[in-house]
Amino acid sequence: MIDFAGKNLSGVDFSGVDLTGANFKKTNLSHADLTGANLEDSILIRADLQNAVLRGSCLIQARLQQAMLWKAELGEACLKSCNLKNSNLKMAKLPSANLQKVNANHADLTCADLTEADLCYADFSHALLVNTNQVFQMLFI
């Protein structure tokens, strides 16, 4: 297993890299480019992904509890069965992202863009959804 736990990888370019099962616990990945990276089954608990670019990345079953994803770009990313419990996704961009079966309990999605995101069976219990885009808000009316 690749182990980057606790490292400062701010601004690193991991675009297109296979990081399946990697350990990024408490790692600083702010401003990192992870476009198209494979992060399936990765551990990103309490990772700092502020302003990171994860467009088209695979995050299936990734563990992102308490992760900082403020202003992260996750358009067309696959986060199926991902654990985002207590994560900060304020102003995150998730257009056309696959969020099927995501656990987003107590996550903060204030001002997040979820336009055309697939939310089937996603759990947003106790999540903050203030000023989240209109398409997402309509699901709860």
Automatic annotation (TrEMBL):
SUPFAM superfamilies noted in UniProt: Pentapeptide repeat-like
Xref: Pfam families: Pentapeptide
The name this protein goes by in its record: Pentapeptide repeat-containing protein
Organism: Desulfonema limicola
